[in-house]
# Entry
Amino acid sequence: MSWTKEQMAKTVAELFSDYSSVNLGIGLPSLVAQFLDPKKNIMVHSENGVLGVAGRPNQNTISPTLINAGKETISIKEGASFFDSSLSFGMIRGGHIDFCVLGAMEVDTEGNLANWMIPGKKVTGMGGAMDLVNGAKKVIIMMNHFTKNGKSKLVKKTSLPLTGLNCVHEIITELGHFRPLNNQFQVVKLANGISEKDCQLP
# Structure
């Protein structure tokens, strides 16, 4: 049985070390903020200039001026700070982000990532992904395992324009936890009832 989005987010959250700084990409990765262990004292960074994101707000705390890089409303934790985009990207490019969690269109066995463009199709854009894969100490991919056409996004060699070379450390999909290692995908853990054959690993 495949993991739910919430189970995927919990699995990602467990990979963070105590007192780390984390950047969460738009889409699926943004769910991770809701499953962080408060005891780990993790600070979530957003490219638009927030350090201290604390997941989704409720009706009493929602504010139209508090958003993340995906334009979603957020809440903040005690000690949060706000700054301009130049300082925000200075944090990223300066190596001050411990983990980043991004979506992907393809990841290959060398740890190469493609997540910003499909030739001939309209895609929102790269955002801060190219900065993050070079600046963050560890890159985690959280994505659906298959395309809408049923093809695995874990491939031997990506055919799409690259976001980063040899940059991916961990991959979480609804089918399990994988790791690019020695030009193949190491299976760290599979969802209950899922076999390696189901994953269509190259």
Observations:
- The longest strand covers residues 76-82.
- The two ends are 21 Å apart (CA to CA).
- The chain has a mean pLDDT of 93.
